[in-house]
Fold each of these.
Amino acid sequence: MIGLTNLRPSEIPAAPLFNEKRARCVLGKIDAILAQEKAMDQQRDVRFVELGENLCEVRACQHWRLEKFESFDAFLESRFPGSRRKAYYLMAIHEHLPAKIKPSLKAVGWSKAVELMRVARSDGGKFASATWLHKAQQLPKEQFKEEVERHLSGKEVEPSEIIYFKFYKSQLPVIEQALEMASRMLGSDKSRSYCLEMICADFLAGASLDRDPNTLLLSVSKLVQLLPEPQKLEFLHEIESWRQKEIAA
């Protein structure tokens, strides 16, 4: 079903070119880190930044195709059986924390790096990386976590919730393809939850045309909020133009 805004562009973004040599190199690095982790329980805490970076490249460049996986999630399941959530945290650390503090994260540890990532994601361009890194280095883990919670709760931060779904393996390729397509259209810096929200809002806009107008209003409002600022202003300008025409008529 085609939604009101129709996520299908006139020109579908091309899939990344597959580089077999690079894929073997990156997958080899991931396997080496995970192999060392089995021998040393703390190894991921030592090399988690490097692991997150490599996982991001596997997803972006589709290196998982080297081993004939149907999706990135299927690849994660092979390397992180029962713990894909942790793999996504590793990737978020790489994506959200600035490069200048990454060399210091090894001493900070995995759990504090996750808290740093939460602050960075919330503060955006205002993230005081040096200040927060110093706090992470000086405070015990639980005290640092409390400091982060106080910082986040002092702002109007939308609460989040983790929702689990069980999918059949035959469903994963379609879901993964839809998320990847939305990611290419919306920007690779957008989270997968953001992409899923856009897909759902687009579906509701189309599915609600002849049904509940309140649901249509909700979905369209959500879509407008997700637009970049220039497009949002352009949309509002068009709405005002339509309103003036209605008044004139």
Amino acid sequence: MSNVPDMSLTIAGVPFKNPVIAASGTFGYGREYQGFLDIAGLGGICTKGLTLHPRTGNTGQRLHETPSGLLNSIGLENPGIPVFLEKELPRLRELGPVVIANLSGSSLEEYTEGARLLTASSVDMIELNISCPNVKSGGMAFGLYPEAAAPVVEAVRKVTAKPLMVKLSPNAPDLIAVAKACVDAGADALSLVNTFKAMAIAIDTRKPVFDNTSAGLSGPAIRPIALRMVWELWDTVAVPIVGMGGIATAEDALEFLMAGAVAVQVGSATFAHPPAMTEIIRGIGDYMKRYGVSRLEELNIRY
């Protein structure tokens, strides 16, 4: 009998070799990190946020470091879904991991048309982004309240048979209510959390650092809050949860898996230390061997 732990899992019918996924907006289209880590060894890759039409993103400064975190105001810069499908997806598929297309939009029509295009492609799953805090239209506005989130999920669900994961905002006044509405509207899985709405002021100019004033806070500073949100959500929805928020080590990832997440996404840690995800995968495996855990789901302490 092999003592090698089984780190594989399935989310909405999609098989993953392990539970570590590159978070949207932090890994480009994968090729940018070739030579820095074993990309083929990752469980999955979430694309940069994709919109129906090209976006140039926000003006001015886009990144700002803060103690134990990173503020970003990228603004969903991307070439548009048609260009992604033609130029980026074929090369992304060659890398090996599960491909998850992160879909965003400024209107219901943009979301649904984008979903139609992605449905006709080879992406394995759609991650519906209704939680981006640093765009002026659409984005987070759709994910703050159940009555705004449900119509988007329902509309996208009607036009796609692809597995649908909805990315939730920690800025929602009632996250559990939003989550339940998304599941009722057809979500196959939930990912959380996106970044926290935050800001910084440049004291030399006495102006906000970002042209958009607010930005999204990620990194270790948000991890304990994100973990608590995953914990609270686990027994209220009957779909898989993918946890994220400040995960930088195997120990961090294990906390989320123990709290009920079936997988994790890693983002800001990759900027600071490109091999972080490879080390996290190895660390989870080492932990499972050390404690005699044979299958990934046995890590969940909620049962």
Amino acid sequence: MKRIFLDWASTAPPLSLAVEAQKKAAIELFGNPSSLHGEGRGAKAALEAARSLLAQAAGAQPEEVVFTSGATEANNMVVASILKKQFADPTAKPGRRVVISAIEHASLWEPVQAMKKMGFDVAVCKPDASGIVRPERLRELLDERTVLVVLMLVNNETGAIQPVAECVAAVRDFTGEKGGRIHVHTDAVQAFGKIWFSFPESGADTASLSAHKLGGPRGAGALLVSSKARPAWLFLGGGQEGNRRPGTENLAAVHAFAQSARFRIESLDANHARAVRLMERLIRAARSIPGVLVLPEDRAETGDRRFSPYILSFAVPPVPGEVFVRSLDEQGIAVSTGSACHSSKKDHTRILEAQGVPKAVADSAVRVSIGPETVESEIDAFAAALSETVPLLLRISKPRA
């Protein structure tokens, strides 16, 4: 039986072009990009070519691209930069504020909670019932002590697209009135290569990207850093990446990352239109089954632009989401209960609860995420499996009289 993979938000099946690009670079470009000999110069040229290619895909400048081991490292680099500024400045007063949305990925949520333990004042901005953070709500949380604002671009569990540019404008308007500068960071992992994204038009100071969400290799990512931003880099020990991220670059992975990004960007419009049609088909099928709740419940069936067409969450209370995942897995279909980084944690329902979803419903949530290579027959097979599985699991879960 051929398995059906509908967990693209956790990772994407590798693109053959990425695998070949990584293999070729590993064999032919083995020199250290920092070395001055021929092998080193060849590796350096390939590294900068990959940097330019990725920058072009994100609408950024090559010098704004810092290669990392992934988005988790990129996110932590931003938080560490703020920490370093705080503790390196003898005039800094405790209680500086960080504003973070309640729906952030764990790789930002947890580091910011650690900042709270170190004396930062952390303000959490909750989304509305659709899972979208409103600029006016975020602005209410800003004050003269604020040094960092964190807001992801596409939520990894619900697909809700956040108005990052509008929120950044609200932050800049505030600082224009009060003076100073607030660093704004956006996690663009679920957006880049899937929906239209331009780093300069987002207005953010920094943005994190990941290779394996695009079909590139794991262990590669990037932090985009605006020329206007002045982070205080924490890592030391080498001059690589413009003294921003020391350590010999993983050239083979970086090369494959850039090739994957170019491939996805070139076909973005066609892939997006196709994903919209598949998602409409998926939502209609889910809503036709008694007991299934699409989350959020006001998500429209036809081209709802508030959401990425690649991600859908639904619930069938009181059936636990884990039960659904296992049942579908036995039928050859891979879905998840949300972020892979949250699946084994106690706060795995944090994002849905933040937008007002009751705990009992959030515990039942399942995420379905599609990709450019998902086909209509896979959506139909999933819908058929769901129509058979839901009544059975509801009967089993029904309390005995």
Amino acid sequence: MRSASLTHQADFQERWACLRNPHVRALVWLLDAPDVLDADAPRWHGKIARLPVNAADNCRDWLLQLDADPTAFEAYLDVKRFTRLGRYAERLLAWYFKHQGQLVAHGLPVRSGKEETIGEFDFLLKFNQALVHWELATKFYLLAVDDPALASVQQADYFVGPNLADTLGRKMRKILDRQLALGEHPAAQALLPEPLSAAQALVKGWLFHRRGSQLDLAQLGISEHHCQGWWCTLNELEAHVGSVGAVMPRITWLAPARLPLNEGIELPLLTNQLRQHFEQDSMPLMVAALRRDGDVWLETERGFVVPDAWPQQAVEKISG
């Protein structure tokens, strides 16, 4: 039973404390985590997908077996070939859909002739004898503009990717207007074993806010239960992390961190590590705040630490 008083990290660690394998933990997070978007919000026109309620709990025995012997799972994932977190997440879910007997195709390219690629189906799935197209988006956005007076449909663009190359609004427009229309293309229809009954997007991820944010997200179609973190500049780090933390490599951004003791970094050393990074690179870094639990560190909170110039650059990106 979930507790509404717990953070997502505490809830996850409490219910899945038995898991040790990082890839099984990542898969469970994808199945278990609340969606970023509210599938019932009118603005999405029924195009937001949802996994079954309690999807992870419903196959708990299988997941525990996977954690005990992940050999075949890890061989299937072939993690070393991934440079994009989204591709890794797709592969994790493909393993689940295959186990459920629902996977028709994963990563199916659609080409016009020999050279031109029209697009790609992330997933073709069979639900209750109906063929469905699902696109998976696993995204991490920072709320760069937090002004309740700015109530407009474009507020989703105030959520900016850490590299400033994307916004939540632009991503959703691309998915809804282009990617979910792929099945309508003649080249795509030629590949389908039967007509599609639906095309939807499954959106997982974390949204990062300034502490004390008052923005009403319901009007944006964002789920009130979405996974949340914070973002701060380097000189604000102590108020967010506490005594021990760790920088999280991109491939580990899905599930709450569970780290061996030698990977926890005390705050002064962590601050110095981040300072040295920003002297060479302006990319924000994700940091986990940690608490000790026996012989491991467990994530209590997470957030992006950004260089001093990032907030203004984000605002300029949005307004530009």
